[in-house]
Amino acid sequence: MAIDLKIELEDEQTYYTPGMQIKGRILWTPDQSPKEIVGCLGWQTHGKGDKDSEVLVEQRWTPLPGVNFVKFSWTIPRAPLSLSGSIINIQWFVEAEAVKPNGETSRMIQIGYSAQPIRLQTVI
Amino acid sequence: MFCFFSIFFFAGGAALWFLTIWPYVKYFRASDWVETSCVIREISVKSHDSSDGDTYSPSVRFEYTFDGQGFVGSSFWFGDVSTNYRSAIAEAVKPFQVGGEYKCYVNPRAPAESVLNKRVCVGTWFGAILGSIFSGVGLVGMIFGARSSVKPKSVNASKSLPSLSNRSPILQSVADEPGLKYVQSQVVPVEAPGEDQPLVLKEETSRMTRAVGIWFAAAFWNAITWTITVFAARDGGIFTMLFMGIFIVIGLGLVAGAVYTTMQIFNPRIAVICSQTNLFPGCEFEVSWVVKGKVESIKELLITVEGAEVATYRQGTDTRTETKIFYKNEVVKLTDASQIAQGFQLTSLPVDTMHSFEGSKNKIQWRIKVSGAIGFWPDVQDNFPINVFPPVIGTVGTGSIGTDAAPDVFPTTSTS
């Protein structure tokens, strides 16, 4: 049976500037006891081109029986910044995965120097 | 990518060899074969089952005598290509009747080797087109594959993210906390350490490389095209010749392009210097230029800074690349020869723009473009890539949402 995973971000924040800390926790139902929890911060492209992606921060935990969440606090990388272009978009995500029982979940976030991703518009 | 395209290259090469080159090799080697009288015992159009429907080839058995010995021959012509065009095969065997006496050709060094019809089989042009397209695409892919494999900028280009539990070994641990790992992005350029220095920019592709590349493509394309056309003309294949007309026009276009790029080699050379190596969104910098050679031939010099989105994607079996220019700023536009000869101009990058990004399929590229208009001669068109780095942490306002000092809202009982 798949585990029910959830990512909570501190203050439900979804916009971060490089160098800041992204804080939150990964939760699961108390009756399930995963062997390992893996959390990561990465980006992926979407748009016209085939997908590129990278994971720049990763953390692993081995939860003790009875524990139903782990906390994380990661430094936001300098780049790439979130982008909304004509044919390329870069979107950051926080992802969590549980191993035995297995489960997966993710949350999208913005990384940049304004609350919106950098917008690029075609000039010619 | 190298291995993937090598399959195309070798498959195309095999098709080219067995369907086109080998029949012609046999044809030319048979130039001294001896003409001998033979009697046809069997002749027909043989059909073969294949995944694309039935294909056909001539089937023949003829008897001949050479040096007092009797032989049986079974080669109708040179090459063993079966084709979908039954009518072409039927047309080829039509002049021959069972029981009739005809001329065949015998290898005097190995009299058991003979052929009834001293010509290559029909359908060699198909092998030539198919084989050259496959091997050409394969060769280009192998060259680019080999080049990209030595660049340390590839990223995980999987269509969907791999399982987290399978992707951690590449990460390098730089954090104190157990189990936490950070890794430097491979797709965003990082400025070199040390003092910032003026930089002489390098051309994206040198004029010589461009010209050699186009000449190579033109030679390859035209060699194949004209070989097929000449043999089709000799065999009277009017439809093949008409079909080849399209390929001949493309070949002539490639030759014109090769001549054009070769003429560009002799244009005045323009050195472009950027006042600083480390460029960031919002920064001011100076672009300097020095023209070497016949400056007065340039009627107008235009220098622009351009930013472009470049996305590569697969569509069916094709790989396509689309480019969208999102920023274009004219640095200088000059018509006076003394100003064209050398000079400098201050310019800047917009604050709210994107830094350089070099994914394997998606790129944000910045370049300085230099165009020089020359009368009755190909223009100067040189591109000089530049790196625009992401802002250094702490040099830009951190926004109003969230701070490092935010209170810990979570319970303290956790594992780590």
Primary descriptors:
heterodimer, A: 124 residues, mainly beta, 7-stranded mixed β-sheet, 3-stranded antiparallel β-sheet, B: 416 residues, alpha+beta, 5-stranded antiparallel β-sheet, 6 helices, 30% strand, elongated, disordered C terminus
What is the global morphology of chain A? elongated
Structural class of chain B: alpha+beta
Question: Any idea what the radius of gyration of chain B is?
Answer: 33 Å
What's the multimeric state?
Answer: heterodimer
Following the backbone from N to C, one meets helices and strands of chain B in this order, namely HEEEHEEHEEHHEEEEHEEEE
* Global geometry of chain B: elongated
Outline the low-pLDDT stretches of chain A: none
In whole angstroms, how far apart are the ends of chain B? Answer: 40 Å
What is the string of SSEs of chain A from the N terminus onward? EEEEEEEEEE
Largest beta-sheet characterization of chain A:
7 strands, mixed
Q: What is the helical fraction of chain A, as a range of percent?
A: under 10%
How confident is the prediction overall: mean pLDDT of chain A?
A: 93
* SS content category of chain A: mainly beta
DSSP strand count of chain B: 15
- Give the chain pair forming the largest contact, with residue counts: A-B, 68 and 67 residues
Number of helices of chain A: 0
The count of strands of chain A amounts to: 10
Classify the beta-strand content of chain B into a percent band. 25-35%
